[in-house]
Amino acid sequence: MPHAFHLPAQMAELLGDDSLSLEELARACRRAPEWVSEHVEAGVIAPQPADAVSGGMVTWRFASTTLVRARRVAQLEACFDADPHLAALTVDLMEEVGDLRRQLRQLRPPVPGS
Amino acid sequence: MEFKDYYQTLGVEKSASQDEIKKAYRKLARKYHPDVSKEADAAAKMAQLNEANTVLSDPEKRAAYDSVSAQAAAQGARGGGEFRPPPGWDTGFEFSGSPYEGGDGGDYSDFFEQLFGQAARQRGGAGGFGQGGGHAARRGSDHHAKIELDLLDAYQGGTRTLSLHAARPGPNGRMVSEERNLEVKIPKGVREGQLIRLAGQGAPGMGDAPAGDLFLEVHFRPDARWRSVERDVYQPLPLAPWEAALGASVEVQTPSGTVEVTVPARSRAGRKLRLKGRGIPAATPGDLYLEIDIALPPADSDAARAAWTALGKAFPTFNPRAPSQTQQGA
Prior knowledge:
The complex is a heterodimer. By secondary structure, chain A is of the alpha+beta class. Chain A has a single domain (16-107), classed as Multidrug-efflux Transporter Regulator, Chain: A, Domain 2 (Orthogonal Bundle), CATH 1.10.1660.10. Chain A contains four helices and six strands. Chain A has helices at residues 22-28, 33-41, 64-80, 84-107, and strands at 4-6, 12-14, 20-21, 53-54, 57-58, 61-62. In chain A, strands 3-6 form a two-stranded antiparallel sheet. Chain A has a two-stranded antiparallel sheet with strand order 4-5. In chain A, 32% of the residues are buried. Chain B has three domains: 1-136, Helix Hairpins; 139-221, HSP40/DNAj peptide-binding domain; 227-328, HSP40/DNAj peptide-binding domain. Chain B is 30% helix and 24% strand. In chain B, helix 2 runs antiparallel to helix 3 and helix 5 runs parallel beside helix 6. The chains are: A alpha+beta, B alpha+beta. The A-B interface holds A 1-7, 9, 11-16, 19, 27-28, 30-32, 35, 64-65, 67-68, 71-72, 74-75, 77-80, 94, 97-98, 102, 105-106, 109-110 and B 25-26, 29, 33, 35-36, 99-105, 139, 141-142, 144, 161, 179-187, 189-190, 192-201, 212-213, 215, 217, 222-224, 227. Strand 1 (4-6) of chain A pairs parallel with strand 3 of chain B.
């Protein structure tokens, strides 16, 4: 059994609603930044509401939950050569199923000791 | 190193066309997609499928793999058997994949990393084998994993030890498999579905480039005591019939400690009492909602049965099935 490597607490960063830049989102999806731009323009991926405008340019920021969504869209597109909107529709349904499954688990929590 | 039979993984013949490989991959990807599959090992299966497809769907990689596969057959290695590629196996092959290729990086086997991983590319860069034939520094890819926490961890923070299995560059640039435990401080205020980023804990970079990051997707274990929706937390509050009817001051164990709650008279089942700011901590913390539930004392003794009978006699016209009564319970 390997020794546990202690990671300094400050290295564990909780990603909030506007933590990720376009480039970070693209990198985490293993896609080019243009892929993110195109999907934002198409309404498949939503940036946080922009309140920071510098030099007439709006800087997009993304929530960490958007990264989970963007990765799913990217995977579906790669797996099935899917149209971005079809991939987004599938991801919408996946998210809904995930929510419903969570609610179902909550209504039927595991019996302690089982 | 365990030899991987990618054709077997996708269930196709070695002579399969690109179209047949694509069809087989998609069929299996649909079956084992971890977001919808009910198979226990769906995520692991999906990683194997992705790896097999990454190699077989790329003519250059497939040709290189077929060459290695022939050598493996000569060594007597089959799928799952031990295999070590001879030095220089990759001479004459050039891989031109994009740095953005692949749907989900980071989950490749040691076999794949040995043959097509970053160290192999880097090694080849000096010898005419690699991406563009150069030693370009490139940041390591990000890795992703899920982590299951208790809701209390969101209130108190916590420490979790993660067991990670990843390939790292070893001596001679070859990738070696490494298992390591990582002790991670869970920050307070984490929510369902949120990500924790561990900087530099992803795949190592090429050359002087930094390592990638490790992203942990947080999920809470189901708990009969409470559940969360965003930053708000919901908790059942069982009350005795008389507490609900007459009002009471009750002690409640909440995720942030014991609190004294004033229950208003004439409270009904399903009614929610909001404790502002006692949800998941944050700059703007969530709220805690106590959901009233009426618990009935058991009629398991003569005295208890007499008490229930007396109660019934005290309300001779009470009909819980009357429309006005049932609407109140909503």
